[in-house]
Amino acid sequence: MKSTRKFGPVVAALAAVLLTGGLAACGNSDTGGGSGTADDGKIVLGFSQVGAESGWRTANTTSVKDAAAEAGIELKFDDAQQKQENQIKAIRNYIQQKVDVIAFSPVVESGWDTVLKEAKDAGIPVILTDRAVDSADKSLYKTFLGSDFVKEGKLSGEWLVENKKSATAEVNIVELQGTTGSAPANDRKKGFAEAIAANPKLKIIASQSGDFTRAGGKQVMEQFLNSNPKIDVLFAHNDDMGLGALEAITAAGKVPGKDITIITIDAVKDGMKALADGKFNFIAECSPLLGPQLMDLAKKVHAGEEVPARIETEETTFTQEQAKEALPTRKY
Ligand code: GZL
After folding, report:
1. How far does CA 26 lie from the centroid of its chain?
2. 317-318 and 282-285: which strand pairing?
3. Which atom belonging to ligand 1 lies closest to the Cα atom of 147?
4. Nearest C-alpha to atom 11 of ligand 1 is from which residue?
5. What is the residue range of the signal peptide feature (predicted)?
6. What pLDDT was estimated at residue 39?
């Protein structure tokens, strides 16, 4: 419908400039931040992954890559090999490439403010997935999609309190911590310690990082066994360290799941097999299948839509019997 209102010469000139400028901005995909949309109009997502340290991480990478393909999002993927400096480098590369959205799983909680401010100044929204950062400035990222690690530690501790409630002697616990400084290691340790405080007989006699790997779990468990004659319980922050510890436990002539009660977190297939076979006693699930939610969030933040500051993944726990039932249909 033709407008009947008349604009003065100044307003018309201003409108022309704004319109031309606007068209130029839309047409030139290299201006401003976050306008790195691919030539074919696809959203370009720059993703920095922690590494490939565990079965959980492998399943998480598969979920992210499959979901990006499914969502029609162009994924730039970098494996940081568990080094923060590699993640910072990858994020800076994504800023240079003017991707539309950046997502990453921070290997450790601290040391991100500078690079996250660079992304913010470049106008590129950032999504945290899997692990969190300890930045005080919550404006540095749009949302954190991941598990509640304190709850995972708490559920593990609560199961042990129940399982050892009739113990008359002290119960000696050794703990295999995840990567030093990482949110899952810090929070799982916190949740577990708070839960077992309910029974003073439950004592953590040794606690050390196995870096979330099978090799690390085996090596540290060997040290624990050599320096502690009486170990009743192993709490491992992930299945992979627990699986590595199994080798050390059996090599020491002890029966895992019986001589030493074993509690882990993740519930990846190999962990669930160990649980079903009676080598583990309890697993708190930590779902790696974050890909579809991540892609949905990437589309929303790219479109400038509001998203929740915190999105907690749904997960459960498994006993030996529940593992036997769940294994046949386990997705990861
Ligand atoms: C948890 C994730 C942890 C897993 C480990 O969300 O960051 O890192 O528990 C993985 O298996 O290595």
Report:
1. 35
2. antiparallel
3. 6
4. 56
5. 1-24
6. 66
Token pair for residue 310? 């915190």
What's the CA-to-centroid distance between 57 and ligand 1, angstroms?
Answer: 6
* Spatial separation of the C-alpha atoms in residues 76 and 78, rounded to whole Å: 7
Whether 56 lines ligand 1, by a CB cut-off of 6 Å, is yes
* Domains along the chain with CATH numbers: 44-146+288-313 (3.40.50.2300), 149-286 (3.40.50.2300)
Torsion sign (Cα): 139, 287, 53, 264: positive
Helix ranges, the chain (H): 9-27, 55-71, 84-96, 113-121, 149-163, 183-196, 214-227, 239-251, 269-276, 291-302, 320-326
Closest atom, ligand 1, to C-alpha of 268 = 11
